[in-house]
Design a protein that fits this description.
Blueprint (H helix, E strand, L loop, with lengths): L2 E10 L2 E11 L4 E5 L6 H9 L6 E6 L2 E2 L5 H5 L1 E4 L11 H11 L5 H11 L15 H13 L5 E5 L7 H14 L4 E5 L3 H7 L2 E6 L2 E7 L12 E7 L5 H5 L4 E6 L4 E6 L6 H10 L4 E8 L2 H9 L1
Parallel strand pairs: 3-8, 3-9, 6-7, 7-8
Antiparallel strand pairs: 1-2, 1-4, 4-5, 9-10, 11-13, 11-14, 12-13
Helix pairs in contact: 3-4
């Protein structure tokens, strides 16, 4: 296992930030670490990296215990914090050379050039970091996290504040990195998790409320969370709509717009279509939507 977390609790005075958190992450996994603000995600990541100490429990990274934070332990981890702490007045290449020098890397020049190429910083390498866009500053942060070739990469909100093009670029970069390294990724962007993560861990109020392979999230969604969204040309009889076979409940979004919760084992759209014919209604739009990760997140953390 790349990361083994056992019974971690963390208290800040009277406030309990983490409460008996345990999970394992295998080598080569890309894991989405989700939760609302204040759930304890950043605290857990800082404990794994050695920036904070836990009140109770233990953490192992690549077989090394965080009770002894030394150079060997730190070399196993690359970390990009939520607020990317860069030296704004340094040049990109100069900064990466400094970070590589701290790790006393052999062939430093070649390694810096390799990171510049990997993170797409070729055109920006001779610029002052403070003059870069946020997307490129995130690339610099990823380059410094990767320069010592760590086995584990911890990324805390790596795409916050980026535009859609920058998000896609960073997402593709993380996907490529994840082919060779273990990646633990914190984010509030559900599409990002669905696009790149193999597994999802959801934290709420310091406790894990879900831990599942991304491909098996359906098992957490329950059997009553399929919505047929339909809009008619005029208002219909709500009681008649509720009586249709397979309909569990109906939410009236407007006088002509209805969200029908149905049994997921049966597609009720033909029934709704026949209902429209029988009641001289015209369907302006109809779609069937299963609960996605965003809805599951709301369900588990509200």
């Amino acid at each position: 296992m790349s990361i083994v977390v056992k019974g971690i609790a963390k208290n800040f005075g009277q406030q309990k930030a983490l409460d008996q958190v345990s999970f394992n992450i295998k080598s080569g996994e890309i894991v989405g670490f989700l939760g609302p603000n204040g759930a304890g995600k950043s605290t857990m990541m800082k404990i794994i990296t050695g920036l904070l100490t836990q009140s109770v429990g233990s953490v192992e990274v690549c077989g090394l215990n965080n009770s002894n934070i030394n150079k060997d332990y730190r070399r196993k981890i690359g970390y990009l914090p939520e607020h990317n702490p860069l030296y704004q007045d340094m040049y990109v290449k100069e900064y990466l050379q400094m970070v590589g020098g701290v790790y006393k890397l052999p062939n430093l020049k070649e390694r810096v050039n390799e990171m510049i190429d990997l993170t797409g910083l070729e055109r920006e390498q001779h610029k002052v970091i403070g003059s870069l866009s946020k997307g490129y500053r995130q690339r610099v942060g990823l380059a410094q996290a990767l320069i010592h070739n760590p086995e584990v990469l911890i990324l805390d909100e790596p795409t916050t504040g980026l535009d859609p093009n920058q998000i896609l670029e960073i997402r593709n970069l993380i996907t490529n990195i994840g082919k060779e390294k273990t990646v633990m990724l914190s984010t509030h962007i559900m599409q990002e998790v669905e696009a790149i993560c193999e597994r999802v861990i959801i934290l709420n109020r310091g406790k894990i409320v879900a831990d599942s392979p991304a491909s098996q999230l359906d098992t957490l969604k329950g059997e009553s969370e399929v919505i047929v969204d339909v809009e008619f040309n005029k208002e219909c009889d709500l009681n008649k709509l509720l009586q249709l076979e397979g309909v569990q409940s109906v939410e009236k979004a407007s006088s002509t717009h209805y969200k029908i919760k149905s049994n997921p084992k049966a597609d009720i759209r033909p029934t709704v279509f026949q209902f429209a014919v029988d009641n001289q209604l015209i369907i302006l739009g109809m779609s069937r939507k299963e609960m996605g990760l965003e809805e599951l997140f709301h369900q588990l953390t509200q």
